[in-house]
Amino acid sequence: MKKLFLASTFLISVLGFSQTSNEGSKKSVVEKQTELNVKRLTLELDLTPAQQEKIKPLIAAEMEQKDLKRVSFINKKEQGIVISEDEKHDLRMKLLDDEIAKKAKMKEILTADQYAKWEKNIADRRSNIQEKREGKKEQRAEKKEKRNSNK
């Protein structure tokens, strides 16, 4: 009897927790990322409410594209599809075209000072990413060297 009671209590608690609803997370990941990026830009560049409303669709479209690219990349990787050099070149060209278009749109929306600060922030982020990559390469090389010296 005691075992039956414990088993039923366990079952009820597991079922109760497994049926939690997603009402609190009605917004998609893309919408959440868009809001975060708009707020981050607002703080960094001191955007006006009008500028925020103009930038929000740009960022939403960018986040949607990133999400689609991520899903596509994951699917290709799972299927074992290798991208050819021509496809890589086309992807890089499209990425650069998108970046040029985004810069032009941001230049229309932002003031000259805000645009200069935005450009500087992008350059800083890129250099930080590059430094991290170089640091990881050095760490991998050191680990490989240690492994080879231990043999």
Characterization of the model:
- With 151 residues, the chain is an all-alpha fold.
- Helix content is 85%, strand content 0%.
- It has helices spanning 2-18, 29-45, 49-79, 85-109, 112-150.
- Helix 2 crosses helix 3 (49-79).
- The longest helix is centred in the C-terminal third of the chain and has 39 residues, at 112-150.
- Helix % is over 70%
Alpha-carbon distance between the termini?
A: 62 Å
Q: Number of DSSP helices?
A: 5
Q: For the report, how would you describe the main beta sheet?
A: none
| Strand proportion | under 5%
What low-confidence regions span 5 or more consecutive residues with pLDDT below 50? Answer: none
Name the shape in a single word: extended
If you average the pLDDT, what whole number results? 84
Which structural class fits the helix and strand makeup? mainly alpha
User: Rg, please?
Assistant: 24 Å
The arrangement of helices and strands along the chain is: HHHHH
The tally of strands reads: 0
Topology:
Blueprint: H1 2-18, H2 29-45, H3 49-79, H4 85-109, H5 112-150
Notable characteristics:
151 residues; mainly alpha
Q: Brief overview, please?
A:
The protein is mainly alpha-helical and 151 residues long.
